[in-house]
């Protein structure tokens, strides 16, 4: 039996047990993670004969102008359907998505996970991420670094950078504000940084956060990377560096350290790759030998024409002001 549950009706203990046992399980789908990035998230669930969850799908939503809509949260690249079964049949995807369609007139974009294979009847688009399989000796993995990546790794080592773990997220956020935020279309609101702080605190409490900085010869922190490690996956969740840190390739040194640390173990490093609008970042992640993994995306807009027109007008105005 399939049900649509509002937030207060979700049994989070039962939910997390399923995610932890699920073949598709990811840290993004744990209830406490969703509580941070998508407060009041809802869910589609399938129950077994005993009334227990056997398949679930989290639904992150927002409201604007009195209209509820589905939007992929920040710091949550993948969601989708999670099941105790390794293979999810086509009918399950269709039934679960029908529950969403009954309740929302607008889905900006819902990103499934890389283990979800949606049937062709659901008209899907794709984005992607980049995975690096670490279950190999480090030297074998390093052989697949590009020539430039090997050269930049050597430069970071020759620069005498030191690497250390930290519990202080603020330098990383400041690096991002100073060097990256202005380059992002639409800018970055202070709410996004508050969300990152809340998420980091939640990860720290559970021992799932690893925050690294590199320090140069002058004692300056010059690059920072935040990872979360859960089950067999390491997610490269946030990073930034000031200009002098980029020149000294601090992030290359940190990523190489993570690869060495988990090499020969059954871990996947998920770079959380952006789309092709950020070609330099994608090129950087590919330079470690990572492989493309497709993420199915479903979206639709059934809003009244008047609402669509207002939205399009607002987008054009923002583009003109920024232009």
TrEMBL record:
Gene3D superfamilies for this protein: 3.40.630.30
According to UniProt, the name of this protein is GNAT family N-acetyltransferase
Species source reads Pontibacter cellulosilyticus
């Amino acid at each position: 039996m399939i049900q649509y549950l509002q937030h207060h009706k979700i049994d989070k203990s039962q939910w997390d047990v399923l995610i932890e046992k699920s073949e598709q399980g990811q840290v993004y789908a744990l209830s406490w993670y969703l509580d941070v990035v998508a407060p009041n998230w809802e869910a589609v669930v399938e129950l077994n004969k005993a009334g227990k969850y056997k398949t679930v799908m989290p639904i992150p939503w927002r409201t604007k102008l009195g209209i509820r809509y589905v939007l992929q949260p920040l710091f949550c690249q993948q969601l989708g359907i999670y099941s105790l079964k390794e293979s999810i049949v086509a009918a399950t995807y269709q039934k679960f998505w029908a529950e969403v369609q009954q309740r929302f007139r607008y889905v900006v974009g819902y990103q499934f996970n890389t283990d979800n294979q949606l049937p062709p009847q659901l008209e899907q688009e794709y984005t992607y991420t980049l995975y690096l399989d670490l279950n190999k000796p480090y030297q074998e993995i390093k052989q697949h670094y590009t020539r430039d990546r090997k050269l930049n790794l050597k430069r970071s080592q020759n620069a005498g950078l030191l690497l250390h773990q930290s519990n202080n997220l603020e330098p990383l956020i400041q690096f991002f504000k100073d060097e990256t935020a202005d380059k992002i279309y639409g800018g970055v609101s202070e709410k996004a940084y508050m969300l990152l702080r809340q998420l980091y605190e939640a990860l720290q409490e559970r021992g799932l956060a690893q925050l690294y900085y590199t320090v140069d010869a002058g004692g300056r922190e010059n690059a920072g990377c935040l990872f979360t490690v859960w089950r067999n996956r390491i997610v490269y969740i946030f990073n930034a560096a000031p200009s002098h840190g980029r020149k000294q390739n601090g992030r290359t040194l940190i990523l190489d350290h993570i690869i060495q640390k988990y090499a020969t173990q059954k871990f996947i490093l998920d770079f959380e790759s952006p789309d092709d609008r950020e070609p330099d970042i994608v090129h950087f992640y590919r330079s470690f030998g990572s492989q493309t993994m497709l993420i199915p995306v479903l979206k639709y807009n059934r809003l009244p024409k008047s609402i669509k027109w207002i939205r399009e007008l607002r987008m054009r105005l923002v583009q003109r002001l920024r232009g």
